Hints:
Elements: E1 6-13, H1 17-26, E2 35-41, E3 57-62, H2 71-77, E4 84-88, E5 93-94, H3 99-103, E6 112-120, H4 127-136, E7 142-144, H5 149-152, E8 163-167, H6 168-173, H7 185-195, E9 199-209, H8 216-232, H9 234-237, H10 243-259, H11 266-284, H12 291-297, H13 301-305
Parallel strand pairs: 1-2, 1-4, 2-3, 6-9
Antiparallel strand pairs: 4-8, 5-9, 6-8, 7-9
Helix pairs in contact: 4-10, 8-11, 10-11
Amino acid sequence: MDTLKVHVIIPTYKPDEKFYNLVQMLKKQSYPISKILIINTEKKWFPSYRYESDPEIEIHHIQKEEFDHGGTRDRAARLCDGDILIFMTQDAVPSDPYLVEELIKPFAREEVAAAYARQLPAQGCSLMERYTRAFNYGPMSRQKSKADLPTLGIKTYFCSNVCAAYRREIYEQMGGFEKHTIFNEDMIFAGKLIQADYSIAYVAEAKVIHSHNYTNRELFQRNFDLAVSQADHPEIFGEVKSESEGIRLVKQTARYLWHMHKPWLIPDLLVKSAYKYMGYRKGKKYRQLSRKKILRYTMNPSYWESE
């Protein structure tokens, strides 16, 4: 494989010490990164003094009302000419110096258009979230294609911009991320890639530290937004079901908690799962809801202001 030019794109909003650690780890990577493009929301919250003198870093500022999960990332992509575009979130820290090196290896195969990294739980992560990381990001790498739809279902489309790489030429040919989407721009685009007979690689050897301890309300809101994105894109999600995968996660997490001798956590698991399911069901039927309810249920109220 010829040497591929890699650009890393990171949207930021009020970046903290974790983001600083992320940038420092990117600079220690074994594979060279040609450019780190930061597209930051609200200049007043950005610690420019830490990054502006670095020749490898390019910073663009936008206003809060301009931000969109898909549109902002696509805007950044159009400013890059790298062979491979790696998108990361500001709270995903590479676990070692080999993240980029491992993440781009699958692109030696022509049919691979995207690849995403394994997410490991951060220190202080709850036991349930720790298991969810292991459920969604296991230790075995694999390549997914249209042929996997009958067995993997919606997980065939699974890809996460927490840390994901895309072949720029194909990204542009396919039109890039949705320019206006509430959430889930990565899976929407991954679905289009799969349907166009490209493959997506899950690279377990490429690892970032990333996890959340969401409250019940946040779980409801996150799954509401997830379902809205699915409802808006029936051409991708209309033929595959998400509910069965959610049920499998609940059952396996319950078994894990029992095996870990923590059965008293199972009721909390059921409550959290109920919040996730309720949010998902509401989001699927969001067109039947009043604007007041939508703004109460969503995690992204600014998205609805432009609707």
